[in-house]
Amino acid sequence: MALSLPPWGWWPLALLGLAALTWATEDVAARQRWWAGVAFGLGMFVPGLWWMTEFHAFGAVLVVLLETAFVAGGVTLAPARRWRAATVPAALVLAEAVRSTVPFGGLPMAGVPLGQVAGPLGATARVGGELLVLAAAAAVGAVAAEAARRRWTTAAAAVGVVVLVGLLSAVAPDGGGAVEQVDVALVQGGGPRGFRAVDTDPAEVFDRHVAASDGVRPGTELVLWPEDVVDVPRPVLRTAEGEELSALADRLDATLVAGVVEDVGADRFANAAVAWDADGEPGDRYEKVRRVPFGEYVPGRSLIDKVADLSVIPRDAVVGRGPGVLRTDAGDLAVVISFEVFFADRARAAVRAGGHVLLVPTNAASFSSSQVPTVELAAARLRALETGRDVLQAAPTGYTAVVDHLGRVRQRSVLGRREVLHDTVSLRRGHTVYSRVGDALVLVPALATVVTAWWRRRRPGT
């Protein structure tokens, strides 16, 4: 399972892992199903969330155990006998839905869909989002387990369902047609990577991106800077950096969107995407809604501060409001900032509010390996499929990338290098099935499947 995830990306291995899980949990007691789920979860999350050990080893252990418990609970929830080809995928979907929501808003990282977006099942995201991708992968695994037990009727029925879902996904709306083409430039300033990269002087980071912007080609209509490359002690429009960004937009004759961090009092800060129009005039702004727990804020800070040193996280980010949409001269731009790219509801809300292309200003400079940048790019690909929008991701040290509305990576930067990616993307209207309906299309049948299976199991003679 772990090797199916980014950065390894050997997606077929997940199908074998899910088949083994279905096989191992049939006709065994709930306690045995629990421990099989624990083994499955640890095998996936220990490598999949290994990057956390760079920041806090004990915290990483707690997170891995919690995420494993959700998956093990789902495996235990699936009845041990009949209809495993349906109940195992359904139970895993419910577990993933909970894992992506609690605690503190959830942690939808290191999940099966992030690996499957590179395979043929990724297209199902435009119909049912990442939960349908998970359900389809688990169903294929269940088919293999049923076939190994020579239950040909059940295996054939499950194959039929998977094929039907695949065909429907292939012909489902992909977000509508393009109404306009926009020439874009994504700026990556480059620089050091790793945990201590946070100690880099903010002025150096800003200057790198100003210098890199000299490489923006004439005629570019939209320029995207990464998250947190403009760090100022007051509202950016009242700073020298803000004046320089205004002059840069005017000089390039392009809409400029930059990631800005502003102090808000002594103990809080705002993390925003701020736009300047092509004439240099200040435009719209969006403040991040989904903050990183224990990264951008500390839940229950007053209590934890009594027993732990919180000097590494001295301030809390303020909570933004509403969907991320910037109304600009270059068009209406959907925005999810960094961590928000892992949450389908944020991208979906931004597109439903009128965003025609999806921007992902992010900052993965604190991670020394390629694991998190690769995982983040996989999430961007899922968001592209779910919303039917081209995705522009900019990071100060990578990955900066362009992803089309079919989830295909058109360009990707080199980690740590100064680069400017140029491309032409589409402003698209219309909606996919998923952007219209959301997760209910998968969650309701999954819940009904598990409840029905338990009800039938408790009936006499079943």
List the helices and strands and how they pair.
Layout: H1 12-24, H2 30-48, H3 57-77, H4 84-99, H5 112-116, H6 125-148, H7 152-171, E1 178-188, H8 202-212, E2 222-224, E3 230-232, H9 240-252, E4 255-264, E5 268-276, E6 282-287, H10 301-304, E7 316-317, E8 325-328, E9 331-335, H11 344-352, E10 357-361, H12 371-387, E11 391-394, E12 401-403, E13 409-412, E14 419-428, H13 433-437, H14 440-458
Parallel strand pairs: 1-2, 2-4, 3-4, 5-7, 9-10, 10-11
Antiparallel strand pairs: 1-14, 4-5, 5-6, 8-9, 11-12, 12-13
Helix pairs in contact: 1-6, 2-3, 3-4, 4-6, 4-14, 6-7, 6-12, 6-14, 11-12
Please describe the structure with a list of short key phrases separated by commas or semicolons:
alpha/beta, 6-stranded mixed sheet, 14 helices, 14 strands
